[in-house]
Amino acid sequence: MPALVTHLGKYAAEGPHALVFAGLNGQPLRRSNFNKSVDWHAAVDAVGVPGLHLHDLRHTGNMLAAATAATGASLKDLMTRMGQDSPAAALIYQHASAEADAAIADAINARLTLHFGSSTEDSA
Predict the structure, then answer these.
(1) In angstroms, rounded to a whole number, what is the distance separating the alpha carbons of residues 76 and 90?
(2) pLDDT tens across 75-103, in order?
(3) Is the pTM value of this prediction over 0.70?
(4) pLDDT by residue (tens digit) across 48-75?
(5) Any idea of the CA torsion for 24, 30, 31, 34, to the nearest 10 degrees?
(6) In angstroms, rounded to a whole number, what is the distance separating the alpha carbons of residues 62 and 79?
(7) Measured between alpha carbons, how far is residue 25 from residues 1, 18, 54, 84 in Å?
(8) Quick check: 109 and 120 in contact, CB under 8 A?
(9) CA angle 26, 32, 37 (to 5 degrees)
(10) What are the residues whose beta carbons fall under 8 Å from the beta carbon of 86, sequence distance 6 or more?
(11) Buried b (16+ CB within 10 A) or exposed e, 95-115
């Protein structure tokens, strides 16, 4: 919050309808003027990730949200967070991973152990 308050005080116009981030002439940022307005290419080069696109950040954030099963978020919760209207669009961000596969296998094993009273590894 402190960084946002500082940014608003330094860069945003006054009033409840002021833009948090504006283009070079105070206009809304649009796909067509974003890179030039924020000097995106120089910024990503400076932090060592040349070729990074703004949408890559959205994809990464959505993928991490989808991978965080511990939150108990449903597909509908993820769709709302991502601003997606369809399950198909939200599923784009749900990549399979070795960690998720291992967690699923561990959960199955724990359930079978609870049910049968011994580890399935012992009987295999």
Answers:
(1) 9
(2) 888 889 888 898 888 888 777 666 777 87
(3) no
(4) 999 999 889 888 888 888 777 556 778 8
(5) 20
(6) 9
(7) 26, 13, 21, 31
(8) yes
(9) 45
(10) 79
(11) eeeeeeeeeeeeeeeeeeeee
